[in-house]
Design brief:
This protein has helices spanning about 5-25, 55-60, 75-80, 115-125, 135-140, 160-170, 185-190, 200-215, 235-240, 255-265, and strands at about 50, 65-70, 80, 85, 105, 130-135, 150, 160, 175-180, 195, 225, 250. With about 290 residues, it is α/β, with parallel strands linked by helices. It has a five-stranded parallel beta sheet. It has a five-stranded parallel beta sheet with strand order 8-12-11-9-10. Strands 3-7 form a two-stranded antiparallel ribbon. α6 (about 160-170) crosses α10 (about 255-265). The longest helix is centred in the N-terminal third of the chain and has 19 residues, at about 5-25. The protein is globular.
Length: about 290
């Protein structure tokens, strides 16, 4: 077998480098990326609006009058829900004036808070006694709360879609962790705020995670979003972290690849469809 000449080796490696660069590059110039896309932690949730799952469970046992309002889509509510909760679209809660004398608690899957806070403020101004359930349905599940319906539908309730991650990354309470073996160029570009803790073995990962949470003083109630390159192999990580009894644990759906795809769709040259229409479907559990 003849040895490969140095000049051929040069062009071979140069070609591989060009291919990798093209594959990793966004579909629009890096210098045109809005700075806020790459920032995180510059907003803060108002925790005075929130109530913990433990408090609701305690109040339920004592038969106090909390009305739980599930603002998820009707089809998701029909699959699985908290017993005796109402299903009311978030925009429609303000029209249910019969709820004003009650103490109401809004919740969704547990990762999309911004809209809940905005509506909670509006409802308070209108005279409603309202709170938000910290961690939502996911925290309720992790705390052992009861469910009605098909509990198999809870599979994936802790997967945060790219669109919601894009919004929630801006808030200080989240700690974003990249569990990939190495930090790729894409990760350095799109999630520069993520802490790198590779998931190589359970013992090492648990130790590094514990050190991080102790340093950031987020324990014992940390808020974690886990991501990797493709959104696969989350199950082993989930089982490891759940041993630490973290209620507010979420995983970026489809990983960094899915997040890149979402950001690519925000390219103004491609996004000409206008804003999505708001659903006006009647809530199935509301009185007329």
């Amino acid at each position: 077998m003849k040895p490969i000449k140095p000049i051929k080796l040069f062009f071979l490696f140069f070609g591989l480098w060009v291919c990798q660069s093209l594959m990793a590059a966004p579909s629009f110039p890096v210098d045109s990326i809005p700075k806020e896309w790459l920032k995180s932690g510059f907003k803060q949730h108002d925790f005075s609006m929130y109530i913990r799952v433990e408090e609701i469970l305690k109040q339920t046992i004592q038969k106090n009058d909390y009305i739980l309002i599930d603002v998820r889509a009707a089809e998701e509510y029909q699959k699985v829900r908290i017993p005796d909760s109402l299903n009311i679209p978030l925009f429609a809660v303000k029209t249910k004036t019969y709820l004003k004398p009650k103490s109401i608690v809004l919740f969704n899957e547990g990762y999309a808070w911004e809209a809940l806070e905005t509506e909670c403020r509006r409802l308070k101004e209108l005279g409603f006694n309202v709170k938000i359930l910290t961690g939502g349905l996911n925290a309720w599940k992790n705390k052992g709360g009861e469910f009605a319906g098909d509990t198999a539908a809870l599979e994936g309730i802790d997967r945060i879609p790219a669109r919601d991650f894009f919004i929630e990354k801006n808030y200080q309470n989240w700690t974003v962790i990249n569990t990939s073996s190495v930090v790729s160029a894409d990760a350095r570009l799109w999630v520069p705020f993520a802490v790198h803790i590779p998931f190589k073995n359970e013992k090492q990962f648990t130790a590094l995670l514990g050190n991080l949470l102790a340093k950031e003083k987020t324990a014992p109630n940390p808020w974690l979003i886990i991501l990797n390159e493709n959104g696969k192999e989350y199950k082993a990580i989930e089982q490891t972290i759940q041993k630490k009894q973290i209620l507010n644990l979420f995983f970026l759906k489809n990983g960094l690849a899915g997040y890149k795809e979402f950001l690519d769709q925000q390219n103004p040259s491609k996004n000409n469809k206008g804003p999505a229409k708001t659903s006006t479907a009647k809530c199935p559990t509301c009185p007329n």
